[in-house]
Amino acid sequence: TLLIIDFGSQVTQLIARRVREAGVYSEVVPFQKAEEALKRLNPRGIILSGSPASTTEIDTPRAPQAIFEAGLPVLGICYGEQTICRQLGGEVELSDHREFGRAFVEVKEASPLFEGVWDKGSRYQVWMSHGDKVTAIPEGFRVIAASSGAPFAAISDESRKIYGVQFHPEVVHTPDGARLIANFAHKVVGLKGDWSMAAFREEAISRIREDVGSGRVICGLSGGVDSSVAAVLLHEAIGDQLTCIFVDHGLMRLGEGEEVVSLFRDHYNIPLVHVRAEDIFLSALEGEADPETKRKTIGRLFIETFEAEAEKLAADGRKAPEFLAQGTLYPDVIESVSFTGGPSVTIKSHHNVGGLPERMNLKLVEPLRMLFKDEVRALGRELGLPESFVGRHPFPGPGLAIRCPGGVTRDKLDILRKADAIYLDEIRKAGLYDAIWQAFAVLLPVQTVGVMGDARTYDFVCALRAVTSVDGMTADFFHFDMDFLGAAATRIINEVKGINRVVYDVTSKPPGTIEWE
Ligand code: XMP
């Protein structure tokens, strides 16, 4: 294991990504828990992240002195380099100009960090983002690369295997950065790089068996990638000790409910309870136009419905379920380092099963909690899940209800489902599905006048949305060819009764959000 100590940089997760891409298992811990993690994980090497803090201030975080005493290989990035210098006897000063963006470093000395990637005497592009700068390096260190703004752009003490870089190798704007991080993991720390999804699958299965024993597990299935992969993995580990509950709220896309049932029940033979709760959800949503109320209603009903089904299972004559499985991912688990404190504003209350385990007095099983989204996809492929499930765009818990601004009715949902299916069909046919993070139709509560076959129409407007994104936190609208949009619009208007106008949403996030509600 490589341990990544997080000092609060925005891009710490990317370090973990790069290390894992190099086939080495890594975990991120906030600096406050670094001491404990050192004992627990017994890591072979350490990476210190960047930070918005300044080492020139007294109370800012430091790396545990124990890592230097233990003689562990260390790579400090940006703030990480600065804290190494501070802690080992160098000097860091507040600089009057921030260096931000693209820069070039010249390699001064050969080093295992650069092996096969950077040659002595050559110049390479890197990404800088720092205010402070190192002004004197500790004894035993040498400069191995320098830039005009950062004379100590990369430093090392090769005998102690301690490295510091002022630039950010984890971001794509440092084109060779991933290979430098791989060099640290393989050549400096000496880890082999044989961590793979096949290995993870085996480890995860034995861990689940150990944790669960002979207990029964229930798992909420939504049709999304995360819960699907979690369910198949659990089933492989514990077979019929697993029961999946699929709460079908009637807000799914065209054919989606049946697909989930046929894949999991018929193909995988996983015990599956299909709860047809459309009537309950739609009658509760009737006449409700406020987005937050809609979200909260759906969240509450989901929990109540799920709970009721779980209680039925507890009374089916077998052992009562003790565990609740969730498809929680690593980005939700990594504790964020906060310097400002204070609550952030709620933009939307997300619908998930948070709070369920406490309410139901169940223990949690989260077999995907150490994985990133694309790793979950890779695991899904490893488990033989069809590409249509593994590669699918994210779909929000409250489903089509939040893609029908205003009141939701059965008729509107039917119209929306048809338009959405045509739009996605066109996207797939054009070979664009995988280039897009998320694409969907929205049915506006607005009617406009049109003319079709000499007759006046007065029907709804359908908005099309497509965005690219890395994590859903920010997004850009997708740049379709106008001919594509024209063709999709024509098909929707011709084939879907109830829609006579189509518009395309060209709002990015921020200031928009991906979903309309
Ligand atoms: P927004 O609309 O906030 O969405 O830009 C960001 C991402 O989150 C998805 N989303 C949800 N996912 N439960 C979910 O599981 C929710 O309540 C929810 N609301 C939004 C959205 O589809 C996008 O991928």
Properties at a glance:
517 residues, alpha/beta, Rossmann fold, GMP Synthetase, Chain A, domain 3, 3 domains, 9-stranded mixed sheet, 16 helices, 18 strands, binds xanthosine-5'-monophosphate, ATP-binding, GMPS_ATP_PPase_dom, glutamine amidotransferase, ATP binding
Your description of this structure?
- This protein is of the alpha/beta class.
- It has three domains: 2-188, Rossmann fold, CATH 3.40.50.880; 197-390, HUPs (Rossmann fold), CATH 3.40.50; 407-504, GMP Synthetase, Chain A, domain 3.
- Helix content is 34%, strand content 23%.
- It is built from 16 helices and 18 strands.
- Helix 3 (65-69) links the parallel strand 3 (45-48) and strand 4.
- Helix 6 (197-212) packs across helix 7 and helix 7 (225-238) crosses helix 13 (373-382).
- The longest helix is centred in the middle third of the chain and has 24 residues, at 291-314.
- The protein is globular and about 80 Å long.
- The relative contact order is 0.09.
- Bound molecules: xanthosine-5'-monophosphate.
- The site of xanthosine-5'-monophosphate has 14 residues, from loops.
- Xanthosine-5'-monophosphate binds at residues 348, 350-352, 394, 396-398, 438, 472, 509, 513-515.
